[in-house]
Amino acid sequence: MGTNAKQFIESVLIFGDQLLPHHPLLDPAQNRERSVVLIESFSRIRSLRYHKQKVGLVLSAMRHYAEALRAAGWTVDYREADSFTDGLRAHVKEFQPRRLLMLEAAEWRARQSQYALSRKLNVEIILSPNTHFLCEQRLSEEKAKETSGKKLILENFYRAMRKQFGVLLEKDGSPVGGAWNFDAENRKPYKGKPVPRAPINFSPDAITQAVLEKVERECPDNIGSTTGFSLAVTREQALQVLDDFITHRLPNFGAYEDAMSAREPVLFHSLLSPLLNIGLLEPLEVIRRAEAAYHDGTAPLNSVEGFIRQILGWREYVYWRYHQMMPSFQEMNHWQAERPLPAFFWTGETEMNCLRHVITRVLETGYSHHIERLMVLCNFALLAGIQPRAVNEWFLDSYIDAYDWVVTPNVIGMGLCADGGVVGTKPYIASAAYINKMSDYCGGCQYDAKQRTGEAACPFNALYWNFLLRFEKQLRANPRMGPNVLGLKHLDEAERKRVQQQAQRFLEKLA
Ligand SMILES: Cc1cc2nc3c(=O)[nH]c(=O)nc-3n(C[C@H](O)[C@H](O)[C@H](O)COP(=O)(O)OP(=O)(O)OC[C@H]3O[C@@H](n4cnc5c(N)ncnc54)[C@H](O)[C@@H]3O)c2cc1C
Ligand code: SF4
C-alpha cells in the first residue's frame, strides 16, 4: 500500500455486501488507473449485537475478496479502521483519487450516507446502479403503475420478472408446465424420509482464523459464538455450496418447502442466503443453475419453480418494496402492538417446544428456514402483540443472512403485517394445528396442540382465537382471511370469553 498511490485517478469503494464476482466497476482493463478500497470497521458492529458468525463471515469474505483482487492485478487498499468514514478519509488522503466510484448501497441508510460522502471527503462521488439486484430496472416502471392506483402484488411482480429474464418460459412466452405456480404440490410435512444430505462445511483457513479471533476480541458480547465456524467465505466455496444444493437437495426442495423438523433443521433448503446477500453468488446464476436442473431432468418442476420464485420473486420483491417504503417502514405498527420482546428470545428458555427449538438454533447458528421464521417466530410475535420494531431488531441481530433491506420487509411486512398488508396480502397467522401438521415439534411439547383452553392448552390456540376476536371486523374485510374468520362462528359466547381469558392469563405472565 502507498508507494505508487498517487498514480491512480479513481478509487472503487466496495462494501462488504458487494463482493461480486463480476463487479461492474472492476473492468480489468482499468486496473492501472483504478485502485480498490475495502474498509473493515468495528464501530457499527459493536453498536449492535450482530451474530458473531455473521461478522466472521462478512469480514473473512472481504479479506479473501481483497486477496483475489490482488492476485488478479488490482491494487487494493484494505483498511482496518474504527469508523468507516475514518478509514475512507485515510484512503483519500493517501491515494488522492479524483473520483470515488461505488455501487449504490443496498441498505437505505447506507445509501443516504453515500450521498453525503462527497461533502465529508471533498472528493467527487460517482454512484452506479447496484447490479446485485435484478429488479433495479423495474423500479421506476412499477412505481409509475402504483402511483396510478394499481397495487403490485408478489405474484404479478414475479411473473413480470420471469418474462423479463426469460426464466422457465416456453417459446410462446407461456410458463413451462402450464402454470406460474406449483404451491399446491409444495406442502408436505416431513416424516423422516428421504434423509437430506448434510450441508457442506469448510474448515477456517489462516485468514478466517485471524478474523474469528478478532471478532471474539472486539465484540465479546455479540450473539452466538465463532466456535465451529464452517461457512463458505470465498467465491470457489460459494460455488461448491451451490453445486451441493442443486445436486442433492433441490429435487426435494419443493415438496418439503414448508415442513419443519426438530431433527433436520435445514431439510432441503439451500443455505444460500448468506452468500447471495454478500455477493459471493449472484441471483441470476443461481436461478439459471436451478432452471438447468429442470431441463436436464435432475429436479422436478415444483421444486425448481418453487425455488426460483423465492429468488426471482420474493427476494427481488422485498428489496423493491423496501426502497419504496423506507424510511417510515420500520416505524409501522398497524395492530398497535406494544408488548416488549419476551426475554426468552435471547435465551430460548421457554416451555413452548417449537419456540425453544427454533430460538436456540438461531442463537447458536444464526439460521432457521423460512417457515420457522414466518409461522413460528413471527406468528407468535404477531398473535402476542409484540412491538414490531423490537422483533425487527431481534431478527437483524440474530441471523447470519440479516440485512436491513431484507429483514424489514420480511418482519414488519410479511411476518407481522405491521404495514397493514402492503408486502403480503394477509396476516400470516395460524393456531397450533398448523405447526402440529407441518412439524414434529408438538409431539415433544408439554402443551397440547389440540386444546384451546385449560392448563395444558397450547398458547398458540388461545392467542390465535383471541387475535381473530380482537380484529374480527378488519380481518373480515380481507377476502383472503375469510376462512379464518368464518371459524369464529363455531365459538359461542362462553367459549369466546374463555379463550380471551386464557390468552390474557398467558400474556400477563409473558416477560
Ligand atoms: C420473518 C422473516 C425474516 C427473514 N429474514 C431474512 C434475512 O434476514 N435474510 C434473508 O436473506 N432472508 C430472510 N428471510 C427470507 C427467508 O426466510 C430466507 O431467505 C431463507 O430462509 C434463507 O434460507 P435459505 O437460503 O436456506 O433459503 P431457501 O429456502 O433455500 O430459499 C432460497 C433463497 O430464496 C431467497 N428467499 C426466500 N424467501 C425470501 C424472502 N421472503 N425474502 C427474501 N429472500 C427470500 C433467499 O435468498 C434464499 O436463499 C426472512 C423471512 C421471514 C419470514
Ligand atoms: S404444542 Fe404449541 S407450543 Fe408446543 S410445539 Fe406445538 S405449537 Fe409449539
β-strand amount: 5-15%
Order of helices and strands: EEHHEHEHEHHHHHHHHHHHHHHHH
CATH class categorisation of the largest domain: Mainly Alpha
CATH architecture of the largest domain: Orthogonal Bundle
* CATH fold-level label of the largest domain: DNA Cyclobutane Dipyrimidine Photolyase, subunit A, domain 3
Q: What is the 3D shape? A: globular
Number of helices: 20
Give, in spatial order, the strands making up the sheet with the most strands.
3-2-1-4-5
Number of structurally distinct domains? 3
How many strands in all? 5
Query: What is the CATH H-level superfamily of the largest domain?
Result: DNA Cyclobutane Dipyrimidine Photolyase, subunit A, domain 3
Runs in which pLDDT lies below 50 for 5 or more consecutive residues are none
**How many angstroms separate the termini?**
53 Å
Describe the structure.
The protein contains 20 helices and five strands. The chain has helices at 43-47, 52-71, 84-95, 108-121, 139-147, 154-165, 206-218, 235-253, 273-278, 283-295, 301-325, 353-365, 370-383, 388-398, 404-415, 432-438, 459-470, 472-476, 482-486, 493-509; strands at 10-13, 34-41, 76-81, 99-103, 124-128. The mean pLDDT is 94. Bound molecules: flavin-adenine dinucleotide (FAD) and iron/sulfur cluster (SF4). Flavin-adenine dinucleotide (FAD) binds next to helix 9, helix 11, helix 13 and helix 15.
